């Protein structure tokens, strides 16, 4: 259909493309460009630009990442991200299954419970978590009053607190895509497996797991990447003693004023995400199942 | 007609099966025998409990009380995956992430059958349903009829003692359904496996089964060959549910002088009819049931039969269906085979005729239910 003949379609497409170009494409390109600046001038685009200077900038900025300090932060971030993702998966998988098998009247309510936290600002929720687990916080008070402990436990500013915070923030992103795939898993499909002689474990291994794999991968992607970048969770619950990649990026931009290096790390993180997304789409094609995110 | 079931101990015995969902009694103390190698159809309107019976044999539902035995094993005590029965599901329930070969091989792999044997049996099963050339396709690349065949192959490759089919043809169009009916029947004869087929389509039930079990509200109304069920229904429900039927209220006057015959009054006339082996008392209310194809039409000048008026004529190709209105306002359906040479055959709309039926082909049942008026209720 010609665009001229459909003004509504033209307008919609223009707005969407305009939005994407101004707010997504342009900033991303700027970040990439900044990450290739040869020297950090403290401004967005300083110094002269040529292919050789960009190559120079690439070597300097990206090369900077290969240092024991940053590599250990990356390693630690990956570790925290993996643990968070694993916990979210172990909690979210049975929960999503439970929702999908609940009565049709109960399902919207259970989904609502998953979504309700989104209605509150995430910073406020993290502060709320702080008041709960602070040294003189609610949890310690309760435990002491119950006589279970004599002195307050050190809960805040630990690695565990960061993980708890991340799981709390990210669990819905694991549950929702999993719920979507469990919804499509029909009861007769499971009954057919039992009928053909598969016990509970075999049914899970050969039918349930493969058919929910697209949801698992989607959930892992949606949890893993944010888990490495949520600097405020690490700041507020971990006391910045265990920085995530997100903390480094924030630090480079806002404290060290080293924009070129901060941009280079951001680009690396984006590339990792792009690579994981590519893997995800490949796997969906492999499983021939569509997942609504 | 004698039942075609062999005179052997039944293969599967259901005894005293009851089941309640919430406050609804789905099955009420049901007894049923399935003989080895027969094609049994559970026929009934939706909600009569036929699918629940099937799911209990398969192991997806358990009876509140009662037993299900297969030869000497208590089937109801075993989980679904340990029963020598397999199911063809209404929705086929093929595994979407596996190709046809893996779908069919799944059951054998679960049994830990040797690889070479799996290969041979899967090939054989796919050839049987003429899909061997598509064995690496996925279910979503197949038509409905082909998916249906895979579902059958996947179940029979396990060589079950009983194959359960839950309205397997309901999703297919008319022509394909006819074709699959024949294929299923042929397959059943070839394999010699007991088939338990659930349907609400009485035509399908009559054309495929060795025995038909007519169910209603959690109980069995009648068990018999298709012919017994159609020609000698034992209740008004069966008469009305299986095929079309005309129903006329009548009253027994007295046993006739000739043995085995009774006098009844019907539409103001006194007739002498066969008692069909039952005994009746004078004054007893009965229903005279007549199949549309047993009705005969004659000109108004004829002295026999009941006066009526033609109010509808439907040409059906093989037959010509006539809706008649009796003088009391009740409607009857008459279905006659087309005969171009018969001058009496073609009646005009509104024309007055006389309607009767082939002697002794009527069915007389005690009037245990409120009468339903109208043709072919």
Helix percent of chain B reads 10-25%
How many distinct helices of chain B? 8
Q: Any idea what the shape of chain A is?
A: globular
Number of strands of chain B: 20
Please, how many helices of chain A? 12
Nearest-angstrom radius of gyration of chain B?
Answer: 25 Å
Strand order of the largest sheet of chain B: 6-7-8-3-9-10
Write down the overall mean pLDDT of chain B: 89
Which class best fits the helix and strand makeup of chain A?
mainly alpha
Q: Return residue spans of chain A where pLDDT drops below 50 for at least 5 consecutive residues.
A: 289-293
- How much helical structure, as a percent, in the residues of chain A? over 70%
Uncertain runs of chain B are 371-377
Summarize the structure.
The complex is a heterodimer of chains A (293) and B (377). Chain A is mainly α and 293 residues long.
Can you walk me through this structure?
Helices cover 75% and strands 0% of the residues of chain A. Chain A is mainly α and 293 residues long. The model of chain A is unreliable at 289-293 (pLDDT under 50). Chain B contains 8 helices and 20 strands. Chain B has helices at residues 50-58, 100-110, 115-128, 144-156, 174-191, 202-208, 226-231, 236-241; strands at 12-21, 24-34, 39-43, 65-70, 73-74, 85-88, 162-166, 194-199, 211-216, 219-224, 246-255, 261-266, 269-274, 285-290, 295-299, 306-315, 319-326, 331-337, 352-357, 363-366. Mean pLDDT of chain B is 89; it is low at 371-377. The A-B interface holds A 186, 188-189, 191-199, 202, 206-207, 210-211, 287-289 and B 58-60, 79-82, 86-87, 89-91, 93-97, 106-107, 110-111, 138, 140, 154-155, 158.
